[in-house]
Structure formats: C-alpha cells, structure tokens
C-alpha cells in the first residue's frame, strides 16, 4: 500500500522494529519489491503524527488497540485515520475465555470504534475490498473500497490511493464495509478447508453463497445495512479471499482440511489468519444473539473441536434451509 500511495504523495511508513528500519534504509527492498523513492521507513510514531495528517493504521486486530494507545498521545483532532484491518476488537474478556463465558455485542468493537475510543480523532474511515497483498506486490490491478461518514475523508483517500493499478470505490456505509471485510475471512478459511479436504467446487459454491447469507445476518445483528455485502467490500473480497492460494485465511484452512490440527498450523504459519480469531468471536456472538448460522457453527466445530469435515458437510447438506434467498 505504501508503494501505491507513493505514486501520489510522500509516504512515511512506521515500523516498531528498529533493526528492520535500519535494514530497509540500506537495501530498500521489502518482500522482494523495491520501495518507491517517496517511501521512508521510520521508527518514530511522534514524527509520523507530526508530519502526516492522513494516517493508515494497519496492524492485526488483536494488536490494534495497543497500537492506538502507543500513538494516541501524538494525535490531534485534525488527523484523519483510515484503517485497513480486517478483524474485531474484544474488551472485557480474553479470547481464550470466550468458549466458557460467551460474548455479547457490547464487548465487540470495530477498528473505527477503537480509534474513536482511544484518541481525539473523529474523522475516521476504513480501507477494504479485494486487496491480496501478494497480488498488489506483483503490480496486479485491484479495487479497494474507502468507507467513511465524512466526504472529506473519502476525498483525501481517493487522492492518495487511486492510481492506474487501483480503482477506489466509495461508500458511506462504514459499518457494513468494515464488517464485510472482517466476516469474509471466516468463509475464506472454510473454503480452504473444503479444498484441502479434496471436496469440489459445487460444495465450495454452496459454502460461499450461504456464507454470504451468514455475513449479512451478522451484519444486520450488529447494526449494519445489507448493501456493502453485495459490493466490492463484500462479494468482491469474498471471491478474492475464498478462492485464492494467496490468501492466508484460505491457506490456513487448506492445511486444516488436509488433516493438520489447529495448534500445528498456528505454530508453523508465520502468517496471520484473522478468520480464526473472528470465528471464535462470531460463533459465540451468534449464540448470544440466537442467530441461525450453521456454516459458522460447523466451521467452529471443525477448527476448534476437531469435528470431522465429512460430518460437517453432511450436516450442511441436510440442514433445513427454508428458501434459497431469504434476506432481500
Ligand atoms: N496482507 C493482506 O493481503 C491484507 C491484510 N489486511 C489486513 O491487514 C491487517 C494486518 O495484516 P498484515 O499486514 O498482512 O499482517 P502481518 O502479520 O503481515 O503484519 C503485521 C504487521 O503489524 C505490525 N504490528 C503488530 N502489532 C503492532 C503494534 N502494536 N505496533 C506496531 N506495529 C505492529 C507487525 O510488526 P512486527 O513485524 O514488528 O511484528 C507487522 O509488521 C489484518 O487485519 C489483515 O486482515 C487487509 C487486506 C489485505
Ligand atoms: O483481506 C485480504 C484480501 O482482501 C487478505 O486476505 P488474507 O488475510 O486471507 O491473506
């Protein structure tokens, strides 16, 4: 993203790792790609906040609140923050205690909630859509969605993000766009499980289609509209992530589907699969809200309780779905 933005403006990238900053200052290559001349990597949050009015905070959801706490003292109301994190924040309970204690709506926060809770910044937004990092690094074309309640946030994002490589869509449906990006990771994980287990495209299509229904149900239960789920931030990102070996969630699921246990995959994959954390949260939230989400339930059992994939598929095939499309 830094290289893309550098096509339009100067970019400061923050890393908390001083050794990495030093190394990048020397060799200027990251993930096999040369850093754009307008990109500088630094280890100084105060300088980032001092020199940049527009900031894109993008770290995994489990670290988002602590990252905000480390930068908040440097932030002012004039700053604009557009996050790119596809996960949920949980307060008042440790993730490992959720199976015992359950979780309620008020314990869940989107990343824009966290930004507003932890700082004086009000002009917030989200960057989402089908943006597999590996494809962006290869220079492949893509589309993003910038969501915000504020025209000026969207306009600024357009100005720095849009390029011949990236089309930028806009929406005011901030919650819907954020949730779509979060929830599709669970379906991508499931899609990888089916593929890893040797199942075909027919059942994968059913999982993705009915998975989209469940995303919409969750969205409604959390207070969002349906619309974002049917656009680039929803179906768009779902297609990219639930069908690509370049998706970490899909790949994580693929290994589970091949028979590896959660602990093995987690211990040996350096890469992040937000969908695993989201699945833990959404399955228990569904119980609390009494939502009928059989795919979420089956994926939870496969991932966290070693439930056999074949039995889960049998459950879904015989599940008494009433009609094909029931949310329009
Ligand atoms: N990669 C992708 O294709 C896409 C990712 N996303 C979303 O972006 C988010 C991040 O994913 P991604 O970048 O791929 O994850 P990675 O695991 O590749 O990288 C996470 C980065 O965040 C840094 N970090 C973690 N915690 C902190 C903190 N408290 N302060 C400062 N830096 C921190 C890590 O630093 P360190 O190296 O020092 O540990 C690391 O550089 C996720 O929510 C993901 O869903 C969204 C669209 C596409
Ligand atoms: O959100 C993404 C693509 O839009 C990235 O997906 P993964 O985290 O599964 O790689």
TrEMBL record:
Entry EC no(s): 1.1.1.94
Domain Glycerol-3-phosphate dehydrogenase NAD-dependent C-terminal: 173-313
Pfam families listed in its UniProt record: NAD_Gly3P_dh_C, NAD_Gly3P_dh_N
Record keywords, A-Z: Lipid biosynthesis, Lipid metabolism, NAD, Oxidoreductase, Phospholipid biosynthesis, Phospholipid metabolism
Catalytic activity: sn-glycerol 3-phosphate + NADP(+) = dihydroxyacetone phosphate + NADPH + H(+)
Record bears the keyword Lipid metabolism: yes
Domain Glycerol-3-phosphate dehydrogenase NAD-dependent N-terminal: from-to ranges: 2-150
Claim: Oxidoreductase is one of the keywords in the record: yes
One example GO MF annotation: glycerol-3-phosphate dehydrogenase [NAD(P)+] activity
PANTHER family in the cross-refs: GLYCEROL-3-PHOSPHATE DEHYDROGENASE, GLYCEROL-3-PHOSPHATE DEHYDROGENASE [NAD(+)] 2, CHLOROPLASTIC
Family affiliation: Belongs to the NAD-dependent glycerol-3-phosphate dehydrogenase family.
Protein's name according to its UniProt entry: Glycerol-3-phosphate dehydrogenase
């Amino acid at each position: 993203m830094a290289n893309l933005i550098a096509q339009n403006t100067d970019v400061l990238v923050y890393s908390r790792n001083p050794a990495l900053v030093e190394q990048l200052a020397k060799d200027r290559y990251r993930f096999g790609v040369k850093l754009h001349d307008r990109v500088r990597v630094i280890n100084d949050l105060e300088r980032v906040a001092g020199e940049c009015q527009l900031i894109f905070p993008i770290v995994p959801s489990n670290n988002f609140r602590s990252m905000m706490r480390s930068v908040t003292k440097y932030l002012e109301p004039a700053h604009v923050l557009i996050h790119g994190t596809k996960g949920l924040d949980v307060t008042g309970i440790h993730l490992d205690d959720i199976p015992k204690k359950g979780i309620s709506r008020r314990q869940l926060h989107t990343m824009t909630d966290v930004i507003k809770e932890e700082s004086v910044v009000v002009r917030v937004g989200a960057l989402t859509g089908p943006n597999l990092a590996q494809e962006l690094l290869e220079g492949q074309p893509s589309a993003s969605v910038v969501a915000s309640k504020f025209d000026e946030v969207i306009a600024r994002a357009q100005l720095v993000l849009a390029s011949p490589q990236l089309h930028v869509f806009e929406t005011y449906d901030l919650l819907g766009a954020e949730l779509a990006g979060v929830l599709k990771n669970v379906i991508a994980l499931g899609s990888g499980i089916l593929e890893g287990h040797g199942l075909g495209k027919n059942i994968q299509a059913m999982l993705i289609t009915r998975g989209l229904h469940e995303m919409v149900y969750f969205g409604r239960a959390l207070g969002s509209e349906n619309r974002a789920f049917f656009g680039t931030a929803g179906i768009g990102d779902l297609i990219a992530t639930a069908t690509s070996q370049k998706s970490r969630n899909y790949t994580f699921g693929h290994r589970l589907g091949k028979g590896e246990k959660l602990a093995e995959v987690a211990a040996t994959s350096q890469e992040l699969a937000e969908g695993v954390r989201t699945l833990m949260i959404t399955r228990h939230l569904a119980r609390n809200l009494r939502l009928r989400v059989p795919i979420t339930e089956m994926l939870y059992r496969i991932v966290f309780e070693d439930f056999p994939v074949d039995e889960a598929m049998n459950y879904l095939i015989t599940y008494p779905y009433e009609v094909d499309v029931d949310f329009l």
